[in-house]
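Anyone up for a design puzzle?
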């Protein structure tokens, strides 16, 4: 007498072709659903130090909306990103249905009008005007008193000191210039030349960081 041990493949009936095909179909459907889910993810192009990007991140989280973050080095002027926003600035939000939104106020008002479960800007015109006033005031205060100072003291100033170790500001020496004499005249002429060069350069398209938070992002990269 031949006995089969438990788990022996000979004791199990072979699966039918119908069952195998059904398994394959179910697996293919689940993979397709996963691909669709990934493709329909909300994406926010941003910079971590940008106050404009920060505001959109806060609104998305307040509304409990899932999103993926993509850091965009705006100074590189990527053609793919410029196709989304010709201005080349962040934030840019891509909705799950493919809608592309750019500029902070436009993105926030869109989110508040479409996802109305939790209104943030307000319902009546008076409330909405007050919210806009407060957010504009906060943007200016936050940028001038926090972002500019934080980057200036922690990143920009040490970097400029390393680049120019003879700088009077870095060395803590007096920066008063002589009012007359050859040295004063030479410095004056050099300053004029520098201003002219800066003026001409300001009219050229730049592929280097220009704003304070862009410089901070580039240095931290």
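Challenge accepted. My sequence:
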């Amino acid at each position: 007498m031949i006995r089969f041990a438990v788990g022996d493949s000979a004791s199990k009936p072979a699966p039918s072709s119908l069952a195998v095909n059904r398994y394959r179909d179910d697996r293919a459907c689940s993979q397709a659903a996963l691909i669709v889910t990934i493709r329909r993810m909300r994406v926010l192009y941003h910079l971590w130090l940008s106050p404009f990007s920060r505001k959109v991140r806060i609104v998305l989280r307040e509304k409990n909306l899932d999103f993926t973050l993509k850091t965009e080095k705006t100074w590189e002027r990527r053609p793919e990103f410029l196709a989304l926003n010709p201005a080349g600035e962040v934030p840019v939000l891509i909705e799950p249905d493919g809608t592309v939104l750019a500029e902070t106020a436009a993105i926030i008002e869109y989110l508040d009008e479409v996802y109305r479960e939790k209104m943030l800007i307000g319902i009546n015109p008076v409330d909405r005007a007050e919210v806009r006033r407060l957010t504009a005031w906060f943007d200016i205060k936050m940028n001038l008193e926090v972002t500019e100072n934080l980057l200036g003291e922690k990143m920009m100033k040490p970097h400029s000191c390393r680049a120019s170790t003879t700088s009077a500001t870095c060395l803590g020496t007096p920066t008063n210039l002589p009012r007359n004499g050859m040295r004063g005249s030479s410095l004056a002429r050099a300053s004029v030349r520098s201003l002219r060069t800066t003026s001409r350069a300001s009219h050229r398209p730049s592929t280097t960081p220009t704003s304070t938070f862009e410089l901070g992002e580039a240095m931290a990269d």
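A detail worth pointing out: The mean pLDDT is 73.
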